[in-house]
Design brief:
Distance between the termini: 46 Å
CATH class: Alpha Beta
CATH superfamily: LmbE-like
Helix content: 25-40%
Structural class: alpha/beta
Order of helices and strands: EHEHEHEHEEEEHHEH
CATH architecture: 3-Layer(aba) Sandwich
Number of strands: 9
Bound molecules: zinc ion
Radius of gyration: 18 Å
Shape: globular
Strand content: 5-15%
CATH topology: Rossmann fold
Length: 247
């Protein structure tokens, strides 16, 4: 890998491999369909997951990346189930942000069931700010990086429901985003896994529950499927009619 930046439009962070696909995959596909570059960064390798070995999960991430059509996926090693707020973790995220120079960043929401999700959320929020500070040095492949601060941060919806600030109509891409999710097949329900300890997302009903929520969110904006996001602050509107188009 060279130090040359690989500019993307959107960069999606997830504490674990599959967080991104499960929560905002259909929105990312929509961006890719529109011709935007999208990259993903998993903060951990998901090695503590009840199901699947790190090797299987790595293969699954690669499969998901090619199915989804991301420009690139980076997997950091901040330690599954032991993500902590350290200077080094923050630096790792700053490096990724400065490398991809995204306009929009997606990440885990601040209030969640899994502690890693909450910690990832806080780290990414802070890293976004610090990445823009000139006096914070960082290296990527031994070369000095330029400061860069993305303009927009969006929190996707995971286990805990919240009232979204925006709902994206993902009617066109929802079915396809399923393929990205199913690439992580070790995590989901299969008959032969019945003797394994059951995890939250491995329950037979999990995927249909996810679909029901997408339907519900879609319904709120008059669409078939929707993905919901919250923002850390108000959304500034430059082109009013781009946000509120005339029919
Ligand atoms: Zn997760």
């Amino acid at each position: 890998m060279t130090n040359k930046t690989e500019k993307v439009y959107a960069l999606a962070f997830g504490a674990h491999p599959d967080d991104v696909e499960l929560s905002c995959g259909a929105t990312l596909l929509k961006l890719i369909d529109e011709g935007h570059r999208v990259a993903v960064c998993d903060l951990t390798q998901g090695e503590m997951g009840t199901l699947g070995t790190p090797e299987t999960r790595k293969k699954e991430s690669e499969e998901a990346t090619s199915v989804m059509g991301y420009r690139k996926r980076i997997t950091l090693d901040l330690g599954d189930s032991k993500i902590h707020y350290t200077e080094e973790s923050l630096k790792e995220i700053i490096r990724v942000i400065r490398h991809f120079q995204p306009e929009v960043v997606f990440t885990n929401p601040p209030d969640e069931r899994h502690p890693d999700h909450m910690k990832a959320s806080g780290l990414v929020y802070d890293a976004l700010y610090y990445a823009g500070l000139k006096k914070i040095d960082s290296l990527y492949n031994d070369e000095k990086q330029e400061p860069y601060r993305p303009r927009h941060l969006l929190y996707y919806m995971q286990f805990k429901h919240f009232d979204p600030s925006i709902i994206v109509d993902v009617t066109e891409t929802f079915a396809r985003s399923r393929k990205g999710i199913l690439a992580f097949s070790s995590q989901f329900y299969r008959e032969e896994l019945l003797h394994e300890p059951e995890t939250m997302i491995q329950r037979k009903e999990f995927l249909s529950g996810l679909e029901a929520r997408a339907r519900y969110l879609g319904e709120q904006i008059g669409a078939h499927y929707g993905e919901g996001f919250s923002l850390p602050g108000p959304l500034g509107v430059t082109s009013f009619s781009a946000v509120f188009p005339e029919r």
